[in-house]
Write the structure tokens for this entry.
Amino acid sequence: MSYDYDYINGRKVPQMVISEDTIISGVHHGTVHVERGVLTISGKLYGTLDAQSDTKVVITGEQHGTVNVNDNALVIVSGKLHGTTSVSYNGTIEVENTGKLVGTLNNRGTVIVRGGFGGVLSGNGVILEGNGYIKQPKVENGINYYE
């Protein structure tokens, strides 16, 4: 499949394509497409994360940006996921005890929260398990903030 480029610090950069088990341990800026295998983010990813069908992403570090969880994809969060997240009908996100999911969540699939969720939710809602919780926003000047 062919993908566009990102522009990072004024430079045209090809988007990263994952086709085998891969670890991002440092800091990566830009879009990442997971086509096959398992992507582990133990560092920080700043950009769009596209978990395609039949793939798995494990976030022990941090993800900042848009996340798409396609059919039969699994994202496990024991670190932090910040941004706008969309889950397809057969997609799944599991937020572990130490994990946090913060931002706008459009859930048409399954989201299990054993850690924390804070943000705006549409779609199916979330399943709370164990000590899972939904963080209520702090409101300042009529604006919701999630910490």
